[in-house]
């Protein structure tokens, strides 16, 4: 309507003034309700054509959308396992800090496993002390075996020397027996040394490895026990936290509630614009928004990111071929906008629906020296008509409470 009124000032009004003061035709005489369509045909036709062109130019170069929302991510409250709730630490809705305990699960099985792991570590420590005693015992046996060996060697050496000096004084059979005894005592030393090495391996290799395994099992049991305590992963606020003592929660079917991170939905506004405006939407464009949860307020915004893909075109591989005609609704160009000034979104409830206008700016091209005069004029017109859209947005912001509370019938 506003565009029609503006266009009529340069089309219908001059046509009427010409008919009235040049041709002398007057309303109610030559110009009546039935003849006005013929008498002012040039003005009416020009007004309609100019209005359509103006609306097209405004909505193309200064796009608008009502599909704008402060989307925010929620974090489901889930344990890493499943179990029955033993204790609840927070209420239905409450602020929480990172690391705060939300609820605990029944941990009798995990505590039993932890106690078993502790006993296993103690068992290995006892085995370590026993192995060290075996090492000391083996060293003593080696000393005893070496002493016996040395005694046998000394006796063999004496009788061998006597046999050398006085042949026949010592029977050859005694010398052979002593040689066998020396060999036997040497085997005893080797056996005691082997026992010492085996005990040393127990102390240095086997038992430390068993202790490391037991300590790893202890750590795993502690981790499983810690998993029964569900904590907040981020600063935020829990909502709809209905879980109570005795409830069963698991990752697949029954989360405990929802955690909304602090600051979620208070920094970025997402808006979907028509596909035809894909060439116009660029990062850095200035925009304005008005939201239902904060009526009568215009929020200056700036476009920071334009998504390069349209969500309506995505698909997942399956057993059926893609049928293009099933995509009835065309997708939108998703853009991300941030407030131009700090605190611009204060007071806007996350998830609130908004109306957004984006404005094309050709200031740099207009200021360029090599831009032709005709193009400068055209770009000035394009930038100037953005005022109309800005005025429309303010009218929408003014009427939004009336439209929502009165005209919608709620």
Instruction: Assign the structural class, choosing from mainly alpha, mainly beta, alpha/beta, alpha+beta, or little secondary structure.
Output: alpha+beta
Physical arrangement of strands within the biggest beta sheet: 1-10-13-12-11-14
How does the overall form come out from the CA principal axes?
elongated
Q: How many discrete domains?
A: 3
CATH superfamily of the largest domain: Efflux pump adaptor protein, beta barrel domain
Note the run of SSEs as H and E: HHHHEEEEEHHEEEEEEEEEHHH
Q: How many β strands by DSSP? A: 14
For the biggest sheet, the summary is: 6 strands, antiparallel, barrel
Q: Class of the largest domain, according to the CATH hierarchy?
A: Mainly Beta
Task: Explain what you see.
The chain is of the alpha+beta class and about 400 residues long. The chain has three domains: about 140 residues, Efflux pump adaptor protein, beta barrel domain (Elongation Factor Tu (Ef-tu), domain 3); about 60 residues, RNA polymerase II/Efflux pump adaptor protein, barrel-sandwich hybrid domain (OB fold (Dihydrolipoamide Acetyltransferase, E2P)), CATH 2.40.50.100; about 120 residues. Helices cover about 50% and strands about 20% of the residues. It contains nine helices and 14 strands. The protein has a six-stranded antiparallel β-barrel. Strands 2-9-7-4 form a four-stranded antiparallel beta sheet, with no helix packed on it. It has a four-stranded antiparallel beta sheet with strand order 6-5-3-8, with no helix packed on it. Helix 1 crosses helix 4, helix 2 packs antiparallel against helix 4 and helix 5 runs antiparallel to helix 6. The longest helix is centred in the first third of the chain and has 58 residues. The protein is elongated. The two termini are about 25 Å apart. The mean pLDDT is about 85.
